[in-house]
Amino acid sequence: MTGYETLVVERRGPVGWLVFDRPDRANAMNATMLAELEHAWRELDADRAVRVIVNTGNGDAFQTGLDVVQLSRDPDALREQSRRTKQAELRLTAWHNRVWKPVIAAVNGTCAGGGLHFVADADIVIAASTASFTDPHVSVGQATVFETIGLMAKMPAETVMRMAFTGVHERIPARRAYELGMISQIVDPPALLRDEAQALAETIAQNSPAAMAATKRALWAAFELTQEDAR
Amino acid sequence: MSYPKLECLKLERRGPVGWLLNNRPDQLNAMSARMRDEFEVAWKALDADPEVRVIVHTGEGRAFQTGVDVTEIATDGVGMDRYRESVEAFDLRFTSWHNRVWKPVITAVNGVCAGGGFHWVADADIVIAASDATFFDPHVSVGQVVAIEAIGLLRKMPAEAVMRMAFVGRYERLSAERAYELGMVSQVVDPPDRLRDEAQALAETIARNSPAAMAATKRALWGAFEVGLTEACKRGAQELVSMWGHPDQVEGPRAFAEKRDAQWADYTRAAGE
Question: Is the ipTM of this complex over 0.85?
Answer without folding.
Answer: yes
